[in-house]
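Weekly structure sync, notes
Attendees: PL (lead), two postdocs, one rotation student
Agenda item 3: pending single-chain targets
PL asked that the sequence for the first pending target be pasted directly into the notes so everyone works from the same version. It is reproduced below exactly as submitted, 247 residues in total.
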Amino acid sequence: MITSFGTAVAVTRATLAGLRSKTPGGPERWQRTNYAGRTVELYAGPATALGAALAAARVHRGAGAAILAAGVCGAYDDVVGAGDPRRGFRAHLGALKHAEVTSGAVKLFGISAAGLVAGALLKERPVDKLLAGVVIAGSAHFVNLVDVRPGRAAGAVLALGAPGLLRGGPAGRLSAAATGAAAAVFPDDLGERAMIGDTGAHALGAALGCAIVAGNGRAGLLAHAAALVAATVYGDKVGEAVARPLG
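Predicted structure, written out during the meeting:
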C-alpha cells in the first residue's frame, strides 16, 4: 500500500515538474481562468492521471487502463470543449438529438465504455461486471461533478478514499493510488496555482471507483451504483452544494 501511494505521488510530481519545464505547445495552451478570474495552470491534470494510472496498473492492469482512458477522455473535453458553455448530461445528450456530437458526449460514452471494460476484468459474474462498470464510470463523473471550486475534487477523493486505506489487498492499494495522486496536487489546486480540470478529475474518480469495486461484493456495488446514479440525476444540486463557501 505504501508503495502504491508513493508511486502515485512520485509520478504525479515528476510529471508536473516535467510539464512545467517543457511546456509543450507553449504556456498559453496550459492556462485557464478559474471561477475567481485568476489564471491557473493545467499541468496538474495529466500529471494526476498518469500518476494514478501507473500506480493502479501495478495492482491491476485493467484498473490502470481505465484510469488512463478516463484521463484521456477528460483531456479531450478540456481541449475541444474549452469554449462550450453546455454542462451536464442532459445538455450533451440533447445535442445528440440534433446530430451534434459534443466533446462532452464523447467523454460520456468513452468513460462509460472504459468503466465497463475494467469492470469486466475486475469481477467474474455478469451482474457484478455490469455493476462494477457503473461504479467506475459513475465515480469518474461524480468527482468531475464536484470539481467546481479549488481543492473540492482532490479533497473529495482524499476523504472518500481514506477508509479504503484501511483495507488490505488490491482495494487498499488502489485506494492508495487514488489518494496518492490526489495528495500530490491538492496543495497547488487548493492554493489556486493549478487546476486538475476534467483530465485529473475523471482519472481520480475512475481510480476511486476501481478501489470501490475491488473492495465490495454485489451488495456493496449495488449500493454504490445507486448512490452514484442518484448523484448524476441531481447533478446540478450536488454542484451547487459543493460550490458553497467552506466554513
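Discussion points:
- The mean pLDDT is 89.
- DSSP finds eleven helices and two strands in the chain.
Action: rotation student to compare against the earlier draft before next sync.
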